[in-house]
Amino acid sequence: MYRTFAYALITASMPAFADAATMKFPSDAPVASITIPDSWQPEETETGVQANSSDSAIYFSVDVADSKSMDKVTTDAIDFLAKNGVTLDVKTQKETPVTEVNGLQMTTLDWDGKDEDGPVSVGMAFVSSTGEKALVVTYWGTKGDEDKHDAEIADMMMSIKMTE
Predict the structure, then answer these.
(1) Which strands form 58-66's sheet, in the order they lie side by side?
(2) How far apart (Å, rounded) are the C-alpha atoms in residues 95 and 92?
(3) C or N: which end of the chain has fewer Cβ atoms within 10 Å?
(4) How far apart are CA 20 and CA 31, in angstroms?
(5) CA-based nearest residue to 120, from 112, 108, 128, 129
(6) DSSP label at residue 144
(7) Model confidence pLDDT, tens digit, residues 114-161
(8) If we measure between CA atoms, which residue out of 160, 137, 127, 149 comes closest to residue 53?
(9) Nearest C-alpha neighbor of 62 from the set 79, 71, 74
(10) How far is 68 from 51, CA to CA, in rounded Å?
(11) For residue 101, what are the contacts with CB-CB under 8 A and spacing of at least 6?
(12) 34-61, pLDDT tens digit by residue?
């Protein structure tokens, strides 16, 4: 069964990462930080960070936005999914109520979809603070394989902190 970010945050046992790196991003003017397991091979992007689970079942990214760029960052994330062959079933869209993570407000949208390998789950979380910056978290996971990464995803989400 598909689990949303919020569900994973609530139900995960929250074990500590054995081998993980805390990345501040963007590196030229850090706005936020996140801890990602080394096995996910995290890397900085132009607007944030991205990583893939070691079995390639999950793609995970976090991008920085502000009120002027939020629509573009969101559109860019959806375009990225489309360029990688992910189609969303818009009829399956679910929105979770606002939750709080490390003092930050988070809203999540989830969809079922498909890629070249079959059914997938797709999620976008919008994380905001009292400052002007916000984060757009994009998640794309293979159904059937994604559940084994729930604890890692929950740990990553719980590690997000704004540096401003």
Answers:
(1) 43-44, 48-52, 58-66, 133-142, 118-128, 104-115, 87-101
(2) 10
(3) N
(4) 20
(5) 112
(6) T
(7) 999 999 999 999 999 778 899 999 999 999 898 999 999 999 999 999
(8) 149
(9) 74
(10) 26
(11) 9, 127, 157, 158, 160
(12) 999 999 999 999 889 999 999 999 999 9
Q: Report how far residue 131's alpha carbon sits from residue 138's, in angstroms, rounded to the nearest whole number.
A: 21
Element (H, E) at 78: helix 70-83
In whole angstroms, what separates CA 76 from the centre of its chain? 14
Give the whole-angstrom CA distance, residue 160 versus residue 102.
7
What's the CA angle centered on 118, arms 2 and 3, to 5 degrees?
Answer: 10
* Token pair recorded at residue 146: 């994604």
Residue 6 is classified by DSSP as H
Place of tokens 């360029």: 83
Neighbours of 130 (CB within 10 A): 9
Give pTM, 2 decimals. 0.86
Encoded tokens for 122: 């797709």
